[in-house]
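User: quick one, fold this
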Amino acid sequence: MSTQSAAKSVGWQHYQTLGQHYDKERPGYPVSAVHEIAARALSLPPSSRRIVDVGCGTGLFTRMLAEALDGSFEICGLEPSSTMIQRAIDVTGAVPSIDFLESSAERLPFSDRTIGVITAAGAAQLFDRTLFYAEVQRVLVENGFLAILQNKRLHETGFFRSFELFLERFVPGYRTGTYADARGGHSVANFEAELASDKRFSSMTVQSWDWPRTFSIDSFEAFAFSTIQLKMARSAHGNDIIMKELQSILSDHCDAAGIINVTYRTELTTAVRTLSN
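Assistant:
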C-alpha cells in the first residue's frame, strides 16, 4: 500500500495561520457529490447513523453534509488546527446535529465499531494515511464506508495551466499533480490505488464531477492566500515577488471585466469496511 507514513503528521500545521482566509473563497463541492454520500449514508440502519468528517477545516463540507442529511445523522467534524476548529464553531453556530472536536486523523477519538460513515473532503492528502486507514477500519461499523472527496484543477490549458507553472516555479518541491502532504512536502495522493490494495476495504468506487467556477482577481487572490502552496511560496521568495508574479498571470487571463473562468473536477473515492472473519 502506497501511503504517506510519518512519525508525526505535520502538514496540517500550515493551517494554523490560514483560518482568516480559508472559508472566504474555497471552491466548495458539487451538491451532486454531497447528495451521493448522503444517499449512501441513509441506506445504513438507524443504529449506524453517525458520521465523522475528518480534517473538517472551518466546517464547509460538514455543513453541506448536515444540510443534505437534514438532521437524520449525528455529525462530528474533526480538525487538528485549533484556529480552524474555532472558526468552524463560530461560523456554524448552534446546529443541533453538528459537533466539532479538535483531533487528528491518525487517532480518532471514538470506540470500535461506532461510526457509520467517515468523510474527508480536501484533507486526506495531509493525513498519515497508513495510520488513518487503520483507524477508519477500527471505528467503522460492519458495512460502514469511507468517502474521500478531492478537488482537482483542470490544468491542461488556460489560467490553471499558468497557475500550475507558477506553483512549480515558486513552491519548493511542488509538481503538477502533487499535494501538500503529512511530512510538510508534496507528493501524489492516489486514494483509489491505496484503498483498492488494502484488504481491510472492499467495494471501492470512484466518481467524478466537472464543474465551472468564476473568480474575480480579488476573489482568486483570497483563495490563493488560503492555500498551503502560496504560504510556502511567500516564505521561500518573499511576499512582494510572489504577489507580483501572481497578479501578472491573473491579468493575462482575466477578461475585460476582471473575471477568470476555470473548471474543477471533484473526485469521490469510496470504500466499504470489509466484514470481519
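User: anything notable?
Assistant: The chain has a mean pLDDT of 91.
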